[in-house]
């Protein structure tokens, strides 16, 4: 067992091989004195304090880079494509699916939204801005349209073909006349 310990390098030797004397130019005398006081008060060497500071700095920068990358990726996913300056535009769920990203629609004279559900509208449309006339099918809630519309002159509901009534109810008025 004693032979095993003799062949192993001492932990301090390994650390000494990894560390070198480094001279750093341009450190202000005031900052150097403050770091020396921190080292003295903590019972560590100036090298240990400096090593800790460098480790903290590198960790902070690495963390900031990761946060920045995540922010940029999130911003790309959250941004929308712009469809603009069109006289007449009919937009369907298939169109939104083909675009593959949320859209902002602006400066359109006549916009018709059809063949899409309220969920598809809300997930596919970011904003509708400066539209003279907007027509939408009753598969989309009016409140959804209103919340995403800015500077729209006319908003009109149109019946979707899939929700046409199958029977007509005819009743009689109090006077016995037929009413529909």
Can you give keywords for this protein?
46% helix, 180 residues, single chain, disordered N terminus, 2 domains, 7 helices, 6 strands, alpha/beta, 27% strand
Describe the structure.
The protein has 180 residues and is of the alpha/beta class. It has helices at residues 2-7, 11-18, 29-42, 46-78, 93-99, 118-124, 142-148; strands at 81-91, 103-113, 125-137, 149-158, 171-172, 178-179. It is built from 7 helices and 6 strands, in the order ααααβαβαβαβββ. The protein has 2 domains: 27-79, no CATH class; 81-161, no CATH class. 46% of the residues lie in helices and 27% in strands. The protein has a 4-stranded parallel β-sheet with strand order 1-2-3-4. It has a two-stranded antiparallel ribbon with strand order 5-6.
| Helix fraction by DSSP (H/I, runs of at least 4) | 40-55%
Could you give the order of strands across the largest sheet?
Answer: 1-2-3-4
The tally of domains stands at: 2
Number of distinct beta strands: 6
Q: Describe the sheet with the most strands.
A: 4 strands, parallel
Q: Indicate the low-confidence ranges by residue numbers.
A: 1-6, 164-173
Using the CA coordinates, give the radius of gyration: 35 Å
Strand content: 25-35%
- Helix/strand/pairing category: alpha/beta
What is the global morphology?
rod-shaped
The helix-strand sequence is HHHHEHEHEHEEE
Number of helices: 7
Distance between the termini: 104 Å
Write down the overall mean pLDDT.
81
């Amino acid at each position: 067992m004693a032979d095993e310990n003799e062949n192993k390098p001492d932990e301090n030797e390994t650390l000494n091989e990894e560390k070198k004397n480094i001279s750093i130019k341009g450190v202000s005398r005031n900052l150097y004195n403050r770091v020396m006081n921190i080292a003295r008060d903590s019972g560590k060497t100036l090298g240990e304090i400096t090593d800790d500071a460098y480790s903290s700095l590198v960790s902070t920068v690495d963390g900031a880079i990761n946060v920045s990358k995540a922010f940029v990726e999130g911003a790309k996913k959250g941004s929308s494509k712009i469809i603009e300056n069109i006289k007449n535009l009919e937009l369907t769920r298939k169109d939104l699916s083909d675009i593959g990203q949320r859209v902002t629609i602006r400066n359109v004279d006549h916009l018709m939204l059809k063949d899409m559900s309220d969920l598809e509208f809300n997930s596919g449309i970011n904003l509708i801005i400066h539209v003279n006339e907007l027509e939408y099918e009753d598969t989309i809630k009016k409140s959804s349209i209103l919340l995403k519309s800015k500077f729209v002159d006319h908003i009109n509901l149109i019946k979707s073909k899939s929700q046409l009534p199958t029977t007509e109810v005819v009743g009689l008025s109090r006077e016995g006349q037929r009413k529909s």
